[in-house]
Amino acid sequence: AHRTRVAVRGMGGGSGAGDADQKLRVLCLHGFTQNGETFRQRTGSIRKQLKKKIDFVFIDAPHDASGAFGDDDASALGTAGDVVGPRAWWLVGENAAASVAATRAARDDDDDGDDDSAPTTSSSAAPVRPVQSRQMRGWDDAAAVIADAVEMFGPFDGVLGFSQGASAAALALALVPSLRDTVRFAVLFSGFEPMDPAATAALHAARITARSMHVHGHADRMVSRERTEALARSFADPEFFFHEGGHGVPLSKEFRDALRSFALDTRPGAATTTQLATSVTDSSHRSPPAVVHPPLAAAPTGKPRHSLAPTRFLFVNGVGPCVGISTEAVRESFGEYGDVDGVDVFDPSMARCVVTMRRVDDAIAAQAATHETCRPDLGDRRLWVRFSSDPNAIEDGEPESAAKQEETWCAATRDSATLGVPGLTLIEDFVTEEEEREMLKCVDSDERWQRLAKRRVLHYGYAFDYGTRDARDETSPMPAFVARLLRRASECGAPGASESATCDQLTVNEYVCGVGIAPHVDTHSAFGPTILSVSLAGRAVMEFRLHEGGEKEPRERRAISMPPRSLLVLHGEARYRWLHYIPHRKRDAIVGEDECETREERRVSFTFRRRREGACECEWPEACDSREGAAQRLKDREGRGLAS
After folding, report:
1. Residue 421 pLDDT > 60, yes or no?
2. What is the rounded average pLDDT of the residues 479-495?
3. CB-based contacts of 207: which residues, under 8 Å, 6+ apart?
């Protein structure tokens, strides 16, 4: 029998005290022929981004996958010579062996001179990968390993899985009660719905209501988008993040920001558990009987927050009415340590509550006695108990009034001539309403949209890499309307616009009302001296900031309103020196106008650029990555996706 090996990282030594207790915990399941340590190494950028908020727990799958696809493959994955070696969450029945390693040894004994890069059932048959298999072998062992991990290091707030590990995570949320009862989100990279009939039926029978993000690369040749979407249908409300890469974990900042936003989402409806469903959207899924819970009292209006100092309030994770443990049972259990003033459930869909003790000393005793224990009177469920602030107290720093917020805004002008940013030109009504409809219809029908943290993007000509801030890989050709627009722009008379006809890269951004983009300068080393931006469907304000001498606060701020169908041309100082961004808000202040201007529900921008050949030689070396070497450092830091 396989003994569970759990690699614990970033948990403050795994103790039950200190800052680590304030973090979320996420169980991480590696891909086929990886192991916990190799997966940990290859998710370094994600862990670094979230290390102050999340503890990641990496475990090894139970089955030995040695020799599955040859020593070269193991070497590329970092498991060649590894003490643990390549592992699998389940074995492939079609490969006709109880163990992949045993199959490899039997084939080698034949010494028939055939290529030995993978185990086969005959001299000519290709090995079957898990994504292709209809015969899963050994899933029960995987479920046991995951349950052991929950018992040893749970409860877990989230689960993260790659490829076979993503599919294993979904199956565990359906079939391992101790995991599904507390997990509120899942992040699944290149996951696929297994083709094994029993596994498929299990997923179809369990409606997984934990929030889910399904990540897939357009260049993934291992797992198709259709298979990822099939797995997503087992979740009640799936979200998707599509990227330009292959079969791996994207490393771009845009993805890391999207992951952070998703994982740390604290909306009341965001934290959910898995339960059986009375109905599903896919008519091919059969619906089991509904699970009926006792009526719940109305949730309190406050919000519990963790406290480093002892208080009367205990945040108890692992119990609640949604898992059949009544508030009365919780009150009676904690009553062993002193008088209990109340037990409040703030989200009825989660196995969490706040126990209010009458005295701080009693709360300290209760926390010490119950934290990380399994209590028979509470269904033998493992508890995670932390101190909380008063959930009904009014927080310091009430939200600023609208008037106070507007005092800090940079009021926008409608005329580039009065803006004061050299090299910027705004041209209103650059496209007609008919052309606007044509352009929006073209991009709306494109299926390649990629979802970032708060917006969608689409690339033509060359795909923009948000990790390197460069565009090197060819993608879909420019739409038919582009040539006409670029010719018109080249004749508009704006500084630098004469170079418009040579633009070879287009990025389309879709913003919903209230969403903007962070301050930045388009990479000097990646793109030429002129940038064109056409706004369609809605208006927005673009703010420009000038920093000097490493100052944290900008020395100058300017803003301009961009109406629908307008063209903004950035050249010279406006393109190279000033940071530009779109503030995240739903209305904007305009110079000389009493009322703020409300943005439309949707805005779509078309940004045209020309890729640069050779180093940038602009007049602002202090802001130029070609001179400072920042672009090269970005490229050197660019990581490769995972292979499995």
Report:
1. yes
2. 95
3. 234, 235, 236, 274, 275, 276, 277, 280
